[in-house]
Each structure stands twice: as structure tokens, then as C-alpha cells.
# Entry
Amino acid sequence: MTRSLQSRLGLGLALSLAAIFVVQWLAVSAAIRYVVHGQIQTRLQHDAETLLALLEVPPAGAPRFPFDTVSPIYHQPFSGHYYRVEIDGAVARSRSLWDEELSLPAGGMNETQGPRGQQLLVLDRAYQKGGRPVRIVVAEDMTPLSREIRRLQYVYAAMSLVFFTVLLALQVVLLRRNLAPLQHLRAEVCELEQGGRAALSEDVPGEVVPLVREINRLLAALTERLRRSRNAVGNLAHAVKAPLTVIAQQAQRPELEAFPDLRDGLRRPVEQVRGLVARELKRARIAGAAGTRALAELPRDVDDLVATLRAIYRDKALDIRVQLPAETRCAMEREDLLEMLGNLLDNACKWAAGAVTLTISHDNGDWRFAVEDDGPGAEPVDYAELTRRGVRLDETADGHGLGLAIVQDIVTAYRGQLVLERSECLGGFAAVVTLPLAGDTAA
# Structure
């Protein structure tokens, strides 16, 4: 499934910001613990040096431990502050240990389990005093500080989440503002598709300007190519018309009445060439559906078409009724619409006894065109043959059998469907065309 550029950039930005805030939170947490451990280490080292200074080591005799002047925190049972001094096998422990023994990890700064499950940060140092080795172990409970660190981490995480949300919302707004020209370009493309403009505006971000210029160049080339193609076909048709007329007149000369086979042999090729010219003219009119288009306007174009047909078939005094939707603009090229409806209505008027109906409706993006008459109609087995070029069920009627074939070409170009059936209302022939004109129409 294709995602929009905005959603891709937004997702990438959200993931990047989330990663940055997570890494920042981890880095800040580690920095806080590092600073706290550093401060505690400094305090423990100071206490160890204080104990070393108070320790009395006479030149002869046992050492004395006059530690009563040490901070009172070391005299409170399980206060979380402990020490242990060892010299010549003699050991002095802080009263705060009570009856517990202080765990002695390897030298240096370590964390260990203390009395009553306390998490202790232990400083183990070796000194020399009076020429004798002294080992001093000082410890402090980290539990209260760890609790404060966790609380600070929660607060920082909550603040980071708020900042993350604000930054993400701000970036979404900036993305929408910066991508607004692309939305405008998209609207212009829709207008181009519907025939509202001939080229795209170059008032877009610099990265998109080359693409817009290339599209405009292609549109201009296609439009010019289509114009020259239609002009060439029209010129060819007019150039061929005069020789065909001369040949047809020659086929009617009295001298050829004695040679009916020769006269028919001339007449049939002339009719075939006329049919080919008419077919190519109609194909040229529906060519180039990918170019810019002038959209059909309802009811103006339909009214003009119906008025023309009424004038052509005025001798039959046909009752041509038209039912149009509320929408006045159809997302279909005007020439294609007139060509399609013109062939369907002309065929209906040709065979109708007195009534023809045209019903146009629009529902959920699909346009439906139904043309019905009260003529003799056709058998279901003949419906498939009617859309073949040059096929006519009644050879006595005028025409080249191209009308429904041209309609089928137009319907196929717009990815629609042509259904031939019996008219339920009028009893004659019915041609129903359904075209999906909501978005991309012509192939």
C-alpha cells in the first residue's frame, strides 16, 4: 500500500525524535548516577581519611581506635553508614553495624548487599600508618539516593514525553506548510485532468520544478501532435472526398447500365472507402485522451445535439425526451461525449417509430447514459454483432455500420461498459453506457 510523502516523513521524524529522546534519557540517567556516585565516593574517601587520622598506632603495643568523635551517623544502628578498620589483626567496626558483619568485596569502589538488604556503595582502601598496613572499609546505603534518582528519571521521562509531543505536533504543522505547494500541484493536476487548465504552474519548490517543466513540455508536445494528427486526417478526408464523388458519378453514367456488374464493382469500393474515411475521422476525434480536455457541459451540449437531430429527422416528427442529472459538468471530453451520444441518438432516431429517450444519471462517480427508442429493436443473438465495424442488420438503411463500433471505442477508452438490450419502457432498442468518471478516466 502506497503511503503519502507526508506520512513517510512524519513517521521517520517520529522515530528519529523517539530515538533521540530515549538515548538522551539513558545518557542523562547515566550522568546523574555518575555524579551521585562521584559525590558519595568523595564523601566516603573523606570519612576514610578521617578514620585514618584518628587511628592511634604507637611504636610498640596494640593500636587504639578512638573513633567516638566520628560523625554520629556511624553510631546509629543500621543508619546506612558503616565502617570497618583492620590493622595487625585488630578490627574496629562502627556501632551502626550492630551485630551484622560488613561484606568485604574486592578493593576499590563497589556495590554490595548490606544489613537488612541495603544496597551499599563500599570504598575499600589500603593505607600505611606507623609503618603498619591499615585496611579501611567505608560504606553508605544507596537506597534513598536510588529512589530519588528513579523519581528524577520518571519526572524527566514525563517532561521528555511532553516535549516529544509538542515537537512532533510542531513538525507536523511545518510539514503541512512546507508540503502545501505539493497539495496545490495535486489540485492543478486534477484541474488539468478535467480540462480546467492547459499547463501546470511552476510556483512549486525548486526540487519539483524540473518535473513540472517536463510535464508541461510533454503536454504541449501531445497537444500539438494531436492537433496535427486531426488536421492531417481531416485534410486527407477532404482530399479523398472529391475523387470519390467523381468515381461515384462515373458509376452512374448511362453507358454503364448495360454493364451492371461493372457498375456495382465501382460502387462498392467507393462505399467502402467512404466508410473507411468516416471511421478514421471519428477515431481521430477520440484519439489522445491523455491530453488536456474540454469537458462536456450539461445540458448545453446535449440540448445542442438533440436540436440538431430534431432538425435532421424533422420529417419523422420524433418525440425526443431528455432527462439530465443535477450536475451540469461531466468529467468527459466534450467531443467524446457528443460523438458517443450522437451515434447512439442517430441510431435511435433512424429506427424509432415516434419516440426516443435519453437518460443521463450520476451515482457514486459512475455516469450512466441510456438511449432508448420504440423501433423494431434487435434480437439478443445480434447484439454482439452490432458493435463490429461495418455490420448492419438492415442493409437497406443508410450508413456504414460504424456508429455502435465508434461508441464501443469511446467506451473502451474510458474503461466503461456498453450494454445492448430491449427497451422496457418503449419496447424497441436500448443502448446503456456506464463510465467510471470519478477519477482517472481515459486510458
In short: Confidence is low (pLDDT under 50) at residues 286-292, 389-401, 439-443. Residues 59 and 209 are 93 Å apart (CA to CA). The chain has three domains: 5-147, 194-292, 294-443. The longest helix spans residues 143-193.
